[in-house]
């Protein structure tokens, strides 16, 4: 059995996903939801959204700096 901090990163991610991206009315079907969440991950979350733990840079920018 893990401690209460084990789930914190995923709770944070899904909280951001719900508040920043998912429409209040929801989706019409599972395919629409899947496509839109994939768009959130590949486009917005990795390329546009600034992350405070990265010095307010995107994950893509941090990978470029590390290379």
From TrEMBL:
<dbReference type="GO" id="GO:0015074">
    <property type="term" value="P:DNA integration"/>
</dbReference>
<dbReference type="InterPro" id="IPR036397">
    <property type="entry name" value="RNaseH_sf"/>
</dbReference>
<dbReference type="InterPro" id="IPR050900">
    <property type="entry name" value="Transposase_IS3/IS150/IS904"/>
</dbReference>
<dbReference type="InterPro" id="IPR012337">
    <property type="entry name" value="RNaseH-like_sf"/>
</dbReference>
<dbReference type="GO" id="GO:0003676">
    <property type="term" value="F:nucleic acid binding"/>
</dbReference>
<dbReference type="InterPro" id="IPR001584">
    <property type="entry name" value="Integrase_cat-core"/>
</dbReference>
<dbReference type="Pfam" id="PF13683">
    <property type="entry name" value="rve_3"/>
</dbReference>
<protein>
    <submittedName>
        <fullName>Integrase-like protein</fullName>
    </submittedName>
</protein>
<feature type="domain" description="Integrase catalytic">
    <location>
        <begin position="2"/>
        <end position="59"/>
    </location>
</feature>
């Amino acid at each position: 059995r893990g401690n209460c901090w084990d789930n914190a990163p995923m709770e944070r991610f899904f909280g951001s996903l719900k508040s920043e991206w998912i429409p209040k009315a929801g989706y019409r079907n599972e395919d629409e939801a899947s496509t839109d969440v994939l768009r959130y991950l590949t486009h917005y979350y990795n390329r546009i959204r600034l992350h405070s733990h990265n010095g307010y840079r995107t994950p893509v920018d941090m990978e470029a700096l590390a290379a």
